[in-house]
Amino acid sequence: MVEDFSRSLSMFSRKISLSLLLLFFGTHISLAQSAVKAQTPPATTAKTLCPAQLEASINTVINRPLFSRARWGILVKNLAATQTLYSHDAEKYFTPASNTKLFTTSAALKHLGANFRIRTSVYQDSEGILRVVGRGDPSFKDAQLTALAKQLRQQGLTQVNELIADDSYFQGDVVPSSWQWEDVQADYGAPVNSLILNENAVELTAIPQSVGQPLQLRWDDPTQAYQWRVVNNSVTTEKDEPGAVAVSRDLKGAVLYVQGQLAVNSPPNTTGIAVFDPTQNFLRHLRQSLAIEGITVKQTSIAMGSINAREVAVVESPPLSDLIKETNLNSNNLFAEALLRSLANNQPLAKNQSTIDLGLQVMTDTLTKLGVDSNSYKLVDGSGISRKNLITPAALVQILQAMATAPEANIFRDSLPVAAVSGSLINRFRDTPAAGIVQAKTGTLMGVVTLSGYVNSPQYEPLAFSIMVNQSEQPVTNIRQAIDEVVVLLAQLRRC
Asked: How far is CA 76 from the centre of its chain?
């Protein structure tokens, strides 16, 4: 029912499990676009379309009885001009879903620069105490832990009196308070702290056993078995029987409930789960990496360390140009949230101000300088998971126009999915005039479908567009198909 997740497709293959989770609980979240494949828009009889015909053609799509209860917001403009080709409620607020990421990534590019990197450091003091300091690198994985451990071993270190995890760089809640409970249980809603490891998510795989037996549960990270209490109410059923597995978390702590069934001949079912305590998870894995390199650790703790310590090991993230590509191309929520907090970038926090608050302030200041009207949007997160986000189609087009003429234009465009080619658009617009010439950011929550980006038609001027649908009871595939029909119309424009 939903797409646009904020998670890397290369890390998790969880399409089946999350769609089943939605079936059980009716959640509305952001998932990878490929989790729900859109239908290809019906073939249009006309090969080209004159601008004068555009309004009537779009109205025919959005005014179908099917969408009588839905709210549509659309704005289409010539990229390099002020001419409006089509507008419908373009100044009104809509829930944007993952179109929010266009704000986060454009502000990050302008404020931090394409070559900005996020540094993870290890400091040592005279008493043999090591302090690892994270600064919210969303790309940090086990390989980077190994790199830190090897650097320390190469310096002759064999014993650590105390290993401190300093998770204080980001201040405030690790999960925005406006996110819904269904979101924060799953990997696409993982907590965002200063010490991120493996996107703060793990996989739990359910495997059929003998008929009548509970499904076998297997963690991709075996240490997770000691971090959770699992209540397994699943069962293995007869051959070829329909199956579904749902995994949910207890409100009170690290308790997982597994429900559902799989046929004895069914393939395993994998679910992505947010880690319960990301800082402890990081510290536990770092201690293991040190042990593999022959470095023993007497004790561990979570605290701020000495300011007089010296840096003895460091790992840097890929450049921001790569980070925003992952954010937009695969609609990665954790990357977007980390980048929002990175906008604060060592700036002092005011009293009772969180890093998110400061990041949003920096975002607004940065986008205002770009010419984006600050009254045309109200954001509370960087990914679009929150339903408190409000954006107008006009604001999205303003961002697209501004970034198209910025020095970072090519980097920004390269981060966007291409119709029928890449990212969250790889399964859309195939065998249509839009294939290969549309670059756009997707967005979906329950009752919300959005698409904003560029049309690079060989027969017409480049366009910037935003299409937002809210409050629809229709299946996502129906709404997405109609949006795609509108975009195909834009791809068919010609001068006449």
From this structure: 26
Bridge partners (DSSP) of residue 262 are 236
**This prediction's pTM:** 0.89
Give 417-482 as a DSSP string. -BTTTSGGGTTSSTTSTTTTTEEEEEEEETTEEEEEEEE--TTS--EEEEEEEES--S-HHHHHHH
Please provide residue 329's backbone torsions phi and psi, each rounded to the nearest 5 degrees: -65, -45
DSSP state, residue 461: -
Q: Which amino acid is at 28?
A: H
CB-based contact 90:394 (threshold 8 Å): yes
Closest CA to 30 of 99, 107, 97, 111: 97
The SS3 call for residue 365 is: helix
Superfamily of domain 37-114+321-491, CATH level 4: DD-peptidase/beta-lactamase superfamily (3.40.710.10)
Each residue of 426-460: pLDDT tens digit?
999 999 999 999 999 999 999 999 999 999 988 99
Q: What is the 3-state secondary structure (H, E, C) of 86-148?
A: EEECCCCCECCHHHHHHHHHHHHHHHHCCCCCCEEEEEECCCCEEEEECCCCCCCCHHHHHHH
List beta partners, residue 273. 186, 202
Round to whole Å and give the CA distance between 426 and 416: 11
**Which part of the chain is CATH 3.40.710.10?**
37-114+321-491
CATH class of 119-174+278-319: alpha beta
Distance CA 60, CA 376 (A): 28
9: nearest Cα among 272, 189, 197, 269: 272
Q: Is 38 exposed, middle or buried (0-12, 13-18, 19+ CB in 10 A)?
A: buried
CB of 147 closer than 8 Å to CB of 315: yes
pLDDT digits (tens, 9 = 90+) for 221-238: 999 999 999 999 999 999
Distance CA 77, CA 223 (A): 53
